[in-house]
Write a structure and sequence with these properties.
By secondary structure, this protein is mainly alpha-helical. It has 2 domains: 2-81, Uncharacterised protein YqeY/AIM41, N-terminal domain (Hypothetical Protein Yqey, Chain: A, domain1, Orthogonal Bundle), CATH 1.10.1510; 90-139, Arc Repressor Mutant, subunit A (Orthogonal Bundle), CATH 1.10.10. It is built from 7 helices and no strands. The mean pLDDT is 89.
């Protein structure tokens, strides 16, 4: 609510519209989960889904030559990212992947990804993790 008030006073329509979309997404998720309020983890999951949708839209609009629409999506993505936790660096993910390989005791990508995500789901970008797991398994 504070962010909405600030955006209204500053006449920042992008932030205002995006915050309204976030609030709506939270309300819909709460209804879907049959709860009054989302936990922090559930709220982050909703924000991650919203960010992923924006990233996909940016790519599609840019590929289609609709640069104005891509720019609008980028602006929304910046607002959404304010509330997303910072993700681990590739070096940190690589270290966790090596631990997950040792923990899983296998060269099965699914088992390694499962072990990694069990411990670090909120801190890791899935695409980056998948790339690093492939690289590390190829080394063995």
């Amino acid at each position: 609510m504070d962010e909405m008030k600030t955006a209204m006073k500053a006449k920042d329509t992008v932030t205002l519209q995006t915050v309204r979309l976030i609030r709506s997404a939270f309300a819909n998720a709460a209804i879907d989960l049959k709860t009054q309020a989302l936990s922090d983890e559930q709220a982050v999951d909703v924000l991650k889904k919203m960010a992923k949708m924006r990233q996909e839209s940016i790519k599609m609009f840019a590929d289609g030559g609709a640069d104005d629409r891509a720019d609008a999506e980028r602006a929304e993505l910046k607002v959404i990212e304010r509330w997303l936790p910072e993700l681990a660096s590739e070096d940190q993910v690589r270290e966790w992947v090596q631990q997950a390989i040792a923990e899983a005791g296998s060269e099965n990508m699914g088992k390694v990804m499962g072990a990694l995500m069990k411990n670090h789901k909120a801190e890791v970008d899935g695409k980056v993790a998948q790339k690093i797991v492939k690289e590390e398994l190829a080394k063995q």
